[in-house]
Specification:
single chain; alpha+beta; eight-stranded antiparallel sheet; three-stranded mixed sheet; 12 helices; 17 strands; globular
């Protein structure tokens, strides 16, 4: 186990210490008000951690504090990790972004698109083109989530038992077959809809590599980068460090809720949201990306692959709002595009929070987030464990206060 530590004073990293105190104060206020159990926030410049704060509890009932080595369910922050794993196969020549998904997963060989109807009276048509690997990485595949209530296909996912994105009693292979049996919301490559696509990508990784997703990522990503705690389960030795998961109550407080099962190897290995990691692990992952695919002498990806990953791939250079379908066509998505597994800022003047051009990253449903700002040589990560009832305003304050701390 290796623990994240502060390596530089804020002034050395051209950060305003007073502004960082305001950042910590706002986050601590949320803990003291009962909105969050606790948090960890880390800010690094040029790869050196210049601000690291922990506050509050990782387990309120047990009175256990958040510490630098606390383990977090990172949920959808798993998606960039799975995408990087798939990109190593692209570099190996075993996979192409333009491979048809049906080449590796025959159930997807003839995708169909929803036309109208519901229940047993759904009408579909053949997709206008094939479903490609790049569509999975960019969430332009036409797949969806069962918990959306914006389109009849969302309801079909619920009817298929996919409320938690896994078909009951199945593994990753069985679940992706269920996805394939359902129509797409739109033709592949034409719109943006955040979805189960990275689970499908994870299954492709398994088929192409010949190894289970957790084994493959351990071999190709975790161990080479020194991500010593990252994985899809926690050992007995790690268990005490795992943060409790909470959900928001009607009154604005929080209460414990069940989380992704992590004791023992899960049957369903979710490349979309199944990982647990420490702040040290994700710092190593961000550093590999910031350094264009290399870390401490180990090259995971070529610089050109990282550039490809972190540029906007949405149709006609659109942002998430204009390319997105409901529920994604909201003002909060203006100025932000999507690359391969990560969001990418394409117009900072239109984003809701202060952002640097080309900044990229992603968040998890339990209110965890990371981003890399290449122009400012800045990386930021934030962790708590609260599943909010709606979008959490903590991200907005976090970005505003981090940007207020930049003095250069």
């Amino acid at each position: 186990m290796t623990v994240l530590r502060q390596e530089a004073d804020p002034g050395e990293a051209e950060l305003d210490a007073k502004a960082l105190e305001r950042l910590d104060g706002e986050l601590a206020r949320r803990v003291d008000a009962g909105e969050l159990p606790g948090f960890l926030v880390a800010v690094a410049r040029a790869g050196r951690v210049a601000h690291l704060t922990t506050y509050g509890a990782r387990d309120l009932a047990a009175g256990l504090p958040v510490e630098p080595d606390t383990l977090w369910r990172i949920y959808s922050m798993t998606k960039p990790v799975t995408t990087v794993g798939a990109l190593t196969l692209v570099e190996d020549g075993l996979l192409s972004l333009d491979d048809e998904v049906g080449r590796h997963l025959p159930a997807f060989a003839e995708p169909r698109v929803y036309v109208d109807g519901s229940g047993d009276r759904v009408r579909t048509r053949p997709a206008s083109g094939p479903l490609l690997v790049r569509h999975l990485m960019t969430h332009t595949a036409g797949l969806t989530f069962a918990f959306y209530h914006a389109h009849p296909v969302d309801a079909l996912y619920r009817a298929a038992g996919l409320e938690s994105s896994v078909a009951p009693g199945t593994d990753l292979a069985g679940t992706t077959d269920v996805y394939a049996s359902l129509p797409l919301r739109f033709d592949p490559g034409t719109r943006w809809n955040y979805s189960v696509a990275t689970n499908v990508l994870g299954r492709i990784v398994e088929v192409v590599s010949g190894r289970p997703l957790d084994v493959f990522l351990a071999e190709r990503v975790f161990r080479p980068l020194g991500m010593t705690d990252a994985g899809f389960e926690v050992t007995d030795a790690q268990a005490e460090r795992l943060a409790e998961l909470y959900g928001e109550t009607d009154g604005g407080g929080i209460e414990p809720i069940p989380g992704t099962p992590l004791r023992g190897r899960p049957r369903f290995l979710s490349g979309s949201g199944g990982m647990v990691a420490s702040a040290h692990d994700m710092h190593r992952f961000m550093e590999m990306l910031r350094r264009h695919g290399e870390l401490d002498g180990t090259r995971l990806l070529r610089p050109g692959t990282v550039r490809l990953m972190t540029r906007n791939h949405l149709p006609d250079g659109a942002d998430l709002r204009s390319a997105g379908v409901p529920p994604h066509d909201d003002p909060g998505n203006e100025g932000v595009g999507f690359g391969l597994g990560v969001s990418v800022v394409v117009d900072p003047s239109r984003t809701r929070e202060p952002s640097g051009l080309g900044s990229y990253g992603w968040s998890g449903v339990a209110t965890t987030t990371f981003w890399v700002d290449p122009g400012r040589d800045l990386t930021v990560q934030f962790y708590t464990q609260v599943r909010p009832r709606s979008s959490h305003t903590v991200y907005r304050d976090l970005k505003r206060l981090v940007h207020e701390a930049l003095t250069d």
